[in-house]
């Protein structure tokens, strides 16, 4: 989650070279991966390269290598670090040549002007990261009536409660984000041990931890989200069910405990306080009002918000207890995504 305030922009107009990193881990997403790459290759502002980083899956690595062997501007790499999304991104950072490194989920497609809008934010030399807006593509064709927009982060998408436009944020969302290369020189890469690891428990927050670490290392740094930089993220049928909502909400609490342990409770939960005290109560009230007016899904949305908060809080308590006992550790990649050094959690 990220707090936002308006950003007026500034600085001379320029266009930096952009490397796009797409991390993949399963052949089940083969068609999605191809669609993601195609959306990057059709950008109005071309990327200097697309890097496909495969996470410890030799059959997928071989298949993608053959598929793109003769495709100019596309490189296929094996994750050089431990299994997981963070190490995969660090591998892409280390191999990339662009002045800006952008990240796209392997099950998402970017609109044609995605990179154009992301790079516009870097006209101001103080800007170190720019993210965009992520729109859900529901497998069923429409949002489940019970699923609150305030919890769209559960499925990796932009959620209700965030103001429109180009605004300053605490952190960008990793599936639709970009960083100036020098950001990694200042803060290092993504911390392993926090984010996702294939189809295991859906942890997250690796981009939150990096952004907070970046702001701490460079207090003048500006991080932005521009809602014109749009991608469309696929939400499979199993993630439309309450079971996934429950698991992901709990895992978010676990992840937030790791972030708080790394960067401190005040910075780690700064945006979440506003979200839980303002945005979510308004969502519950709206759901209850819809229920009273006999509108479909109102009571379900209100109940899901209450359940989501309780589950995330429970995960945070458990995660904090584990971290205090020393049962969790993570590693922070050095500048440029090079070999990793120990971090404490």
Question: Your description of this structure?
Answer:
- 39% of the residues lie in helices and 21% in strands.
- With 345 residues, the protein is α/β, with parallel strands linked by helices.
- It has one domain: Spore Coat Polysaccharide Biosynthesis Protein SpsA, Chain A (Alpha-Beta Complex), CATH 3.90.550.10.
- Strand 3 (49-54), helix 2 and strand 4 form a beta-alpha-beta unit.
- The protein is globular.
- Mean pLDDT is 88; it is low at 337-345.
- Which regions have little confidence, pLDDT < 50, spanning 5+ residues? 337-345
- The CATH architecture category equals Alpha-Beta Complex
CATH class category: Alpha Beta
Q: Ends: how far apart?
A: 20 Å
The helix/strand order is EEHEHEHEEHEEEHEHEHHHHEE
Main beta sheet: 10 strands, mixed
In short:
The protein is an alpha/beta fold. The chain contains ten helices and 13 strands.
Write a concise keyword list for the protein shown above:
345 residues, alpha/beta, Spore Coat Polysaccharide Biosynthesis Protein SpsA, Chain A, three-stranded antiparallel sheet, disordered C terminus
Could you give the topology of this structure?
Blueprint: E1 4-6, E2 18-24, H1 30-41, E3 49-54, H2 58-67, E4 74-78, H3 85-95, E5 100-104, E6 108-110, H4 114-120, E7 127-138, E8 166-169, E9 176-180, H5 181-187, E10 191-192, H6 206-217, E11 222-235, H7 242-263, H8 265-268, H9 270-292, H10 298-324, E12 330-333, E13 340-343
Parallel strand pairs: 2-3, 2-5, 3-4, 7-11
Antiparallel strand pairs: 1-8, 5-9, 6-11, 7-9, 8-11, 10-12, 12-13
Helix pairs in contact: 5-6, 6-7, 7-10, 9-10
């Amino acid at each position: 989650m990220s707090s936002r305030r308006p950003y007026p922009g500034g600085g001379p107009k320029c266009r930096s070279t952009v490397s796009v990193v797409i991390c993949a881990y399963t052949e089940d997403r083969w068609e999605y991966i191809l669609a993601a790459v195609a959306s990057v290759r059709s950008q109005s502002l071309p990327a200097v390269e697309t890097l496909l980083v495969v996470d410890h899956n030799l059959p997928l690595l071989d298949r993608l290598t053959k598929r793109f062997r003769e495709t100019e501007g596309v490189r296929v790499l094996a994750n050089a670090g431990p299994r997981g999304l963070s190490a995969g991104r660090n591998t892409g950072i280390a191999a990339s040549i662009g002045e800006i490194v952008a990240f796209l989920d392997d099950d998402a497609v970017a609109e044609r002007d995605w990179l154009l809008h992301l790079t516009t934010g870097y006209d101001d030399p103080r800007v170190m990261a720019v993210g965009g807006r992520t729109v859900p593509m529901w497998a069923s064709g429409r949002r489940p009536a019970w699923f609150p927009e305030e919890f769209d982060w559960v499925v990796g998408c932009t959620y209700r409660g965030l103001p429109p436009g180009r605004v300053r944020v605490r952190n960008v969302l990793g599936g639709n984000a970009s960083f100036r290369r020098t950001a990694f020189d200042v803060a290092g890469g993504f911390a392993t041990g926090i984010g996702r690891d294939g189809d295991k428990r859906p942890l997250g927050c690796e981009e939150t931890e990096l952004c907070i670490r970046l702001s701490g290392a460079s207090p003048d740094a500006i991080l932005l989200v521009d809602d014109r930089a749009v991608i469309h993220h696929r939400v499979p049928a199993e993630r439309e069910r309450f079971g996934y909502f429950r698991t992901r909400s709990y895992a978010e609490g676990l992840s937030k405990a790791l972030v708080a342990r790394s960067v401190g409770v005040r910075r780690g939960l700064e945006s979440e306080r506003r979200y839980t005290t303002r945005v979510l109560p308004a969502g519950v009230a709206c759901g209850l009002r819809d229920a009273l007016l006999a509108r479909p899904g109102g009571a379900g949305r209100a109940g899901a918000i209450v359940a989501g908060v309780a589950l995330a809080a429970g995960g945070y308590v458990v995660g904090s207890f584990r971290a205090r006992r020393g049962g969790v550790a993570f590693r922070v990649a050095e500048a440029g995504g090079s070999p990793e050094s120990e971090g404490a959690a």
